[in-house]
Amino acid sequence: MKKRILFFIATLDGGGAERLLLDLVNHMDADKFDVTVQTFYDIGIYRNQLSSNIQYKTIVSLKNNSLRKLKGGILWTCIPPEYVYNKYIKDEYDYQVAFLEGIATKFIACSDINSYLIAWVHSGLYSNFWTKNAYRTFKAQQKAYQNFKEIVCVSKNAKEEFVQRFGNYNSLCVKYNFIDRETILSKANEKTDDMPKKYRFRIVTIGRLVPQKGFGRLLAVMKNLIKDGVDCELWIFGKGKCQKKLQKYILNNSLSDYVKLWGFYENPYKYMKQCDLFVCSSISEGYSLVIAEAMVLGLPVLSTYCSGPDELLDYGRYGLLVENSEKGLYEGIKTLYNSPEKLKFYARSSQERVEFFDMNMRIKEIEALFVQEEDK
User: Fold this and answer.
1) Burial of 154 per CB tally in 10 Å (0-12, 13-18, 19+)
2) Are strands 320-322 and 172-174 parallel, antiparallel or unpaired?
3) Is the model's pLDDT at 105 over the cut of 80?
């Protein structure tokens, strides 16, 4: 008999956790697992990329953006989560997975059927406690996690921060993220008709345009680098609530010739491979998939020292880790700009690290979670 698994997530929009979920369910053994993906909001670029054998369900499917936000807001802030679960989610599954902190964890924790409940933690919840707005109180969130038989953290640091925030749970484990190397390399070789000519040292970064990613301070770093004679440019791929603020800073500081906000691209890899350096400027992270993707493309990586990237880069062995500050980013970028040999060293290091993200190995580790409780 196939194991029936529900993966629940807020949306299938273009974030790292959403992309990971897409790759995971599309590559799980269809002979062993009957998989359903359910979203809270029926939005996201990845909805149409689910394999035909994956069942898809949603809760809030209104097309009008304002009405969708209104209904969704009422359901997850005003209505008891037990009611939402019993009305919209409840079904017969062997396993139910809350694949992201916040809304997904809040609702799946309310299951009262005989399912094995698993929660995924993608962020450092001590340094970036972004989920607090999904719950009425801290104790409510702490209690929700107590209902899960397993809590999967995407890095050791994410696990340590979870313990700092909520206390130690016997059910905590670490399952590293993976990437689809072959697909990334294939997409990187696609033709690009809108590629600007390269005149300068080109830096690239990817992520949601939110404060956590530190793009505001990265723009300030760019301003100072250019002022100090560093001939460089910055490409940022992603979308989010800070876009207008970032664009305003670019215009007000005469950076339009040096910084380009590309928006969200389904295939950024063909642009990334034309760059000289990947930078992660995050204030906090859980596990940065985009760093791993940059390494697959052979890009040298510079990252702020924070949960996730430090572990992923083996504390500086496979990429340059800098102080988590504007000063750290400035000095790190300038160092690599002025040292072609160091840049080549970290490019080679990226290639050496690729096996760590092996998709087949990581998916087998994840599939091993879905074993009947009595067999564990």
Assistant:
1) buried
2) unpaired
3) yes
Alpha helices in 176-288 (DSSP H): 181-188, 215-227, 243-252, 269-272
**Separation CA 373–CA 33 (nearest Å):** 16
Instruction: Give the angle 290-296-299 at the CA atoms, nearest 5°.
Output: 80
As a whole number of angstroms, the distance between CA 152 and CA 119 comes to 6
In order of 215, 272, 332, 353, the CA distances from 323 in angstroms are 15, 24, 9, 22
- E-only strand ranges, the chain: 3-9, 33-41, 55-60, 95-98, 116-121, 150-153, 172-174, 201-206, 232-237, 259-263, 277-280, 301-304, 320-322
Of the candidates 273, 351, 346, 361, the one whose C-alpha atom is nearest the C-alpha of residue 316 is 346
Chain segment 223-232, per-residue pLDDT in tens: 999 999 999 9
pTM above 0.90, yes or no: no
Sign of CA dihedral 61, 65, 71, 77: positive
Is residue 143 within 8 A of residue 319, CB to CB? The reply is no
Euclidean distance between CA atoms 342 and 300, whole angstroms:
9
